[in-house]
## 1
Amino acid sequence: MTTPVVQIVDAAAYAQAVEDAVKAAAAYYAGGTSTPDDDAYDRLVRGITAWEADHPDQVLPDSPTGKVAGGAAEGDVPHTVAMLSLDNVFSPEQFAAWTASLARRIGHETERFSVEPKLDGLAIAARYTQGRLTRLITRGDGIAGEDVSHAIGTIEGLPDELAEPVTVEVRGEVLMTTAQFEHANAVRTAHGGQPFATPRNAAAGTLRAKDRLYTVPMTFFGYGLLPLADTEPVLAARLGELAHSDLMALAGELGVNTTASTAVPGITATTTEGVLARVREIAALRAELPFGIDGIVIKADLAADQQAAGSGSRAPRWAIAYKLPAVEKITRLLEVEWNVGRTGIIAPRGVLEPVEIDGSTITYATLHNPADITRRDLRLGDHVMVHRAGDVIPRIGAPVAHLRTGAEQPIEFPQVCPRCGSGIDTSEERWRCEQGRNCHLVASLSYAAGRDQLDIEGLGTTRVIQLVEAGLVTDLADLFALTRDQLLSLERMAETSSDNLLAALAQAKTQPLSRVLCALGVRGTGRSMSRRIARHFATMDNIRAADADALQEVEGIGAEKAPSIVAELAEITPLIDKLAAAGVNMTEPGATPPSAVADNGTVTVPAAGPLTGMTVVVTGAMTGPLEQLSRNQMNELIERAGGRSSSSVSKKTTLVVAGDNAGSKRAKAEDLGIRLATPDEFAALVADYLT
Ligand code: IVH
């Protein structure tokens, strides 16, 4: 897949693009948290390259194409040999073109390639003097880099002492594994800092930070081994002659970590097909790797081929990066949802403008906690960096401040637990529902008692919290075992309210199966699905006897939903038994089980009603005999009378019941020429089914 380049139309646009790229590269190397994503940067640079090819006399000195990105600062340490960058390819065709140009340059096909992951971190040169690690230098502008020797001892895979007392420079990538990144962010936020947006930002920031109160580990992978001025001449000569794969083996023997220790070790291949097969293998393993990679590096393996190919000012001609799609993208934060976990932790989750990252569409990403949102000054509508690595839940980085329009809105924090309505314990950074683990119970009981489920009047959330806190109720069935004395023992429960609640509970036991099923809160069985299931199977026993195939006979239940419903129902078998034992109704009035083949061979088909075969939409306020019915009860009525209820008008709709103040649905029905009925006309049509 090739991403389109940024089109540059004139010299002014070119100058602007160069400026943007320079700024982006500077932010990137400074470990900034609001840099453009890799794809955007690549598109920009390719746009610049294309324009420069047509205007070679107008190339600006700052252009990212002419020099190694970064930029040396005063006092930097010169590199013995320039630390170059790599050119990129994005497709098998581009890779084939590169191998062809390499072959032309060296006068023959490349004998052997080495293929290894392109580690997503920062390049570093580690100097060993007689086996001891003496200096660490960043790439800087490729000619000279920053001395970061203070980080010695914090980088796994880069030993303080080599297995042999040799004087060499090891080059490679410093990065944070996913676990190291999580750890670094935990430590950093515990010290009041802002979490790093990405493992690479985290490695860059950590590597350069000098006087931290804490240290966080990083990991090194070597990809180069070269002599220093003081290297013993025999060794220096040998290093110049060894193939890349042999150098990597030697680095390993000396005790330096290389990709050989990973699930994607460097290999050699003698054909383009072999290289591409390995590219596919590495790409397929990317999501499972414990560290980030952003491509695959392919090098001419033999020293002679490398020498014959030579290097440009920016990149060697004997190596190329086969880039994989970026794992970071910028998108907009649309909303923040607050979800309550099993232990009562209330965690914010960002709803994003969908963005494709590495083949998956991302719509949600983790936000850490309210304090973190405040620290980062995130707002709704902000452009944010989203990072997705492997199977880890995508996370939101910093807002991209310069993309703000002023229309961004503050993120509102919940005042009460969004699940059960109790107070929130905000004493720690991670907010928690005051009900803790009981929160789920409070929420599920409140839901079960709701108007569209068991409709238990007098059992609002506050009452549920009281019952749970008093230890009187530990599951739904316990409600039906409550005694008058128990209720009277509760605060603010007088005789009348206790009796009323007991009467409401007795009434709730007679609710149809569809509502009992809905009250159980099985995932994927909301109000209308519960009705469909109950009408299809008629009894709870039939539902429980159904396997995934049988469940799929219910309209709207597919191959994915069916097994999960079966499994969840099996899980709550004891609860269902307890409810049945408490006298809760487990049948659906008027429904007949599917193809109930009687002993005598006759098949019972569901009774037809006045709405059989019809899809009915209700809109506006109901009047007359239907006045008291909630929308859910209207839908129940439609289905009892043999019809299908729907909430939106389409060509499939057969009848629209339009009450007072019916608006757009009525208008749409008129447009489509769909039959309309007043509430009274409809009541007459289904009179036999009104209970
Ligand atoms: S070879 C002269 N091998 O990618 C050859 N680089 O985009 C240059 N990188 O600066 C380096 N993994 O920081 C090489 N296996 C690998 C690499 C690798 C990551 C980085 C390196 C380089 C950048 C170029």
## 2
Amino acid sequence: MKRVVVTGAAGFLGSHLCDRLIAEGCLVVGIDNLITGDLKNIEHLFENERFSFQKNDVSNFVHVSGDLDFIFHFASPASPIDYLKIPIQTLKVGSLGIHNCLGLAKDKGAGLMIASTSEVYGDPTVHPQPESYWGNVNPVGPRGVYDEAKRFQEAITMAYHTYHGVDTRIVRIFNTYGPRMRLNDGRVLPAFIGQALRGEDLTIFGDGSQTRSFCYVDDLVDGIFKLSQSNHHQPVNIGNPDEITIKQFAEEIVKLTGTSQKIIYKDLPIDDPKQRRPDITKAKEILKWAPKVSRAEGLKITYDYFRSLPEEELYKKDHKTFENYSK
Ligand code: UDP
């Protein structure tokens, strides 16, 4: 039985990853500082003797006693409005946080995977994006704090691999959705579904011609798990290549929710990527992985989840702890 650490365990992806690792028979130590994560996402795991939890900010310090086989570094704010509100913490967890985790991995002789992102490609000039593309990122724009932190994270992870021989993996995660996303996290899917449920108009930023490719969370976690089992140290894209414009996406949500509200248009945020679609040739070849869940199926499951939440969740304006969190 493997003993693994998941940082960001109470977050959207981290919590689904914990579920999968427990189902695979691992002992899981979850770590989260709970600024964007929520204990509700892992409440069901506290009864499981194979799960334990530390409330801790890995940017400051990380220690886990006993043997460890693998660390998944998934802690980070991950939606544009989060990293605009807490830019310094976003930079810290992608630099100091990963440095601490790599130190722990080296000390324990454990493997380590980082959650990297399609944002390393910035506003891409190559389409779809293969792992060999170096990207088009504005380091000093509002998204730079996330994009450059993740790029640094890849660089330091590769350096620990080549210099110290740490057994590392780099997954580049494209837009992912599913149950446990925060309704108020600002990303397009919870934004549209939240608006439909509150009886508000759906807000498209820009003219809606920008594209994204949405992957259902179970597919993503399956790709992550397979990558952790491989011995591939270079970055691997995991995402669903089924590309759609944001306007078409809004129309799909209108149909799914049956809302009679309008679609309205607002300014496009600075440096918002115009197109995004993963080239998953490498994941198919190396991991024998491809996504299985169609957008129609995944959206239905996700909508049912949001509909089942208590009504007050719909009206939560901001995340509870941002104001009190020290910079
Ligand atoms: N978007 C939108 N309306 C919203 C929220 C987002 O039109 O209420 C757009 C956003 O400008 C971007 C796309 O939807 O073009 C995806 O945004 P998201 O924040 O989900 O993720 P990103 O891929 O930009 O990190």
## 3
Amino acid sequence: MLIGIDDTDSPEGMCTTYLGAVLAKRLVGEGMGVSESRLIRLNPNVRYKTRGNAAICLEVHGDMKRAFALACRTVEELACFAAAETNPGIVITERKPQSDFYHKAVKDFCTLGEALAVLEETGAVFRGYKNQRGLIGATAAVCSDLPDFTYELLAYRKPEVWGTRRIVNRDSLFLAERTTYPHTWDTVDPGQGIAVCVPHTPDPVLFGIRGERPGWISYARECVLSEKPGIEHMYITNQGTDAHLQSGRIGELREGRSYMLGGMVTGPVETGRGGHISVTIGDNENTVRCMAYEPTKGFREIIRQLREGDLVVVAGSFKGGSINLEKIGVVAVAPDRYSRPPVCPACNRRMTSAGSGKGFKCRRCGGRAREAEVGERPRGILPGWFEVTPSARRHLAKPLCRGEPDAAILGCQPSSVIQ
Ligand code: ATP
């Protein structure tokens, strides 16, 4: 059977992945088998989310009634019911529903009615608390299908120290990264010299190690020195897979959805207040502004080097009328041409304009020339993919160390968009 759970935490504490880890342990303790734990990230632009819009799904072998009762007891014991925005949902089903609802929940917005229709059609048993919104994420989790996947090992703090300062040896995290990157990633942000895998929120997570396969993650985990965790749990996950991205056309983008799309830079890059960078791209008809915010750090240096005429593929969420860049593929750079007065062959000094349409003249010897000197300056940027710094990466964004995106898979071919 599959058990899906969502919406158990609040900004003040708890985490649905922790609840999933505790439930998995209790199910095993009651003689049931847990063959897979899934950590599913859903549309990162959902406004009800507490932090990372996560839901969990456990694949369980045993008595369904007992498993459901234990899941309900665990949620009732651990979820932050007092928080207004915490509306837990629990789903249990022997039959895996179609994955359509999951794909909609990770790329788009769903209603409770749509989730209930899936649950009824599947014959699932479910319980929604308060306004029942958690049933959306819980249903998406049991519907999830992972054509691409990664893993995350989560270490959780003992309840008696929740809310106090986390003790994790910083150097050991850098060692873990050095030893296992690119098979693991985002343990630290080497460029900025900071730990990324240790949260600063009051939830039970001590640290999380993300990677391609459990073996590499375990290797990295062995490097980490910290306070003694309460429990640790390995999840298979859609994190780091770009599951949220869809193809799109400029001019037809919808708020709160995430896209990969091609375009041509249509004007100069602008630096706004707070160090946020914006650049506009367009196709033959429409334009859209793309933002690289200050926390994306060195990524902004790449964006600053773009010039009008550069052909790019961008990936990110469309919010407030702009695409918030997660990564960018520079497909072709426009030549940076210049034109200036020629050098006088007699005096070896640069000529000056002789007036509009009259060519150039040498101020020293009076020599004349008709043609300007034209040339191309080397561009500081070459075609390739570039991404935000690890500390600014979204959970679902696929890091380039896992491979560069194949924009064509999403039907995104900038050269066919721009004639
Ligand atoms: P936690 O990690 O503990 O689950 P969170 O950041 O994941 O916290 P939630 O507290 O789960 O956030 O809140 C997200 C809420 O939004 C849930 O009720 C979930 O069912 C709902 N939700 C998730 N995805 C969608 C979607 N695509 N459309 C509509 N509602 C969604």
## 4
Amino acid sequence: MHLSSTLAAAVALPLASAQLNQLAQKAGKLYFGTATDTGELTNAEYVSILTNTKEFGQLTPANGMKWQFIEPENGVFNFTEGEIVSNLAAKDKQLLRCHNLVWHSQLAPWVTATTWDKANLTAMLREHVYREASHWRGQCYAWDVVNEGLNEDGTYRSDVFYDTLGDEYFKIAFEEAARADPGAKLYYNDYNIESPGPKSEGAKRIVRLIQDAGLRIDGVGLQSHFIVGETPTIDQQISNMRGFTDLGVDVAITELDIRLQLPADAENLAQQSVDYRTSVGACMQVKRCVGVTVWDFYDPFSWVPGVFAGFGDATLYFDNFTKHPAYNGVVEALTNNTKCKPRPSKMLKRSKPLIV
Ligand code: 9MR
């Protein structure tokens, strides 16, 4: 190769070969990761990207650790489905976000079919959380201990756990998870808590509930299932994250995807790129935002088209494995915001001068 073309290639290399986990770690984050699911692992091209630790340093099983798989009958535990992704992560030394211990959805039918009282539901819940979390002891970087326990107005969601135990069920779940796996970071995880508002306030109330009970909560997971053109602004996302970190917990973007109204065109893909850059950029600006997880990275494996008619193309890779423009939006966020902007000092807000 001629020297000048070698040089040109070398100059072009950083962006062309930029890979997300590598860039995230270089910028001081713990990981850039993705959700994945067992049925997807027969696609060789998909798996080669999934297991490339320069691209993804963290995996979340999208389904395999949910109650319906783990305890399909009362007292009968089966970890096989969850182990497929946890073993894959271990093989390639990827961090594992474990998802989830308590959720109103994807429960085993017997849980909702049983009539519970406080005593027997407490015992059953303790057993479920302890057995599941201790099974993966030492393997989970983080556990989503309770998932989606809030209504949109910030009040607690009515479900089998809340209706019988009230907010006590959060404490039970966090207490057992901490006992079962002292090394795992324990998270509350939800959607629509990515900008300030009543639901985000509800999530803060949960953090304080656990802390005031003398129990451990380490983080809040911001799912971040967004719509192109409707993503909260970077300032909203940053101030929201700081609302949580001010309580002494970490935050993470745990399920990022940004769906567009099909068909994709130059305009909505360009906006999607801006929107991905905004969310990842917010995490970059907040020191205790530990990392970003996308809710799968390949359009055919996204949950979006099955749930939102007319919407899709929410991830970073198209059907043919070419990258969305949004991939570069993420790269820009990971490379341009490597330093955390200093926060305005609390001292400046003092009304009276400090007497020394
Ligand atoms: O990606 C998951 C999909 O395969 C399941 O069908 C769906 C069932 O509710 O759950 C999806 O994952 C959800 C996650 O567990 C919690 N937050 C919302 C996610 C998307 O629905």
